[in-house]
Amino acid sequence: MASYTGGAAEKARVAKLQKQREKGRAEMEKAIQKVKESARGSNIAFSKTKVDAVEETTGIGLVTLGELREREAQQKLEQEKAELEKGVKKKKKRKEISTLSFNLDDEEECEEEPLVLKKKKKIGKNPAVNTSFLPDKDREAQELQEIEELKQEWVEKQKQIKAQEVELTFNYWDGSGHRHKVQIKKGFTIEQFLNLALDELVRIYPDVRCASVDMLMFVKADLIIPHYLTFYQMEQMKARGEKGPLFRFVPHKEEENKPAGLLKDDLQYGKVTLRSWYERNKHMFPANQWKSFDPEVNWEKYTLEQTFKR
């Protein structure tokens, strides 16, 4: 250190400060040494406890940190493997109890088989639940088939009804009645009936020899029946007049000696007349009582009072 040149007082003060600095440095080094010793002591104690644990488990003395970590990892793997084997044995034991098998060969096979997880079964439909309100293609197809069969059965039945033969009695009206009979089918129209009646009348009455079907009229219970209607339709609609039903087809009696299945109309006989005769005499009785048939008119509530008021 360079010497200080100055007064005596200054030299004394500098010497005092230098001593204080050296004393502080010595105390600092002493504190640092004490901290190092205390830190070294704790490391040694920790190493001893770790070593003691390793010696207790492995029987080996001091080891390096890498070897210690490797052995800890190996112990952890062995522990996990033991736990897994323990769980597999428990599941195999449960399986053996549930199957109640006493065959040793089967037990050996079960131990060798790997554990397979079974999929959960899906919940099916309950057959006891009513599902008629739900849409079902098969049921709808079956219902359509049944409807079609019933429809076909109904059509066949109606064909049989239309094919029934009827002996129809009528009066040719030219001011007085002349009774005649023709054989028709229920499915015939009024026009077809008049055509058969014309063939019967042409041979007897000269005034109808030049007539056609359009020139004839059919009157039943004071109602003029349109040519396009069929006897089947009028029976199905239960056609009525002022005095009751227009037609009622019933079988012949046994004493009449008629073919089996032949029907007849047992109500008031209808009238077949020329339209020209009607136009000439519609102001006179009975033509003045005749009117066109209307299916929409309800004659069920008809009373005799209406006849007199008219």
- Give the distance, in angstroms, between the N- and C-terminal Cα atoms: 164 Å
Total E-strand runs = 10
Largest sheet: 8 strands, mixed
What spatial form do the alpha-carbon principal axes imply? rod-shaped
Secondary structural class: alpha/beta
Poorly predicted ranges (pLDDT <50, ≥5 residues)?
Answer: 44-51, 304-310
**Taking all residues together, what is the mean pLDDT?**
79
* Beta-strand residue percentage: 5-15%
* Topology pattern, helix = H, strand = E: HHHHEEHEEHEEEEEHEH
List the helices and strands and how they pair.
Blueprint: H1 8-58, H2 65-99, H3 104-112, H4 137-162, E1 165-173, E2 177-185, H5 190-202, E3 216-220, E4 223-224, H6 231-236, E5 240-241, E6 244-245, E7 249-251, E8 263-265, E9 270-274, H7 275-281, E10 291-292, H8 304-309
Parallel strand pairs: 1-8, 1-9, 4-10
Antiparallel strand pairs: 1-2, 3-4, 3-9, 5-6, 7-8
Report on this model:
The chain is α/β, with parallel strands linked by helices and 310 residues long. 49% of the residues lie in helices and 14% in strands. The strands form two sheets. Strands 1, 2, 3, 4, 7, 8, 9 and 10 form an eight-stranded mixed β-sheet that branches. The protein has a two-stranded antiparallel ribbon with strand order 5-6. The protein is rod-shaped, with a radius of gyration of 63 Å. The model is unreliable at 44-51 and 304-310 (pLDDT under 50).
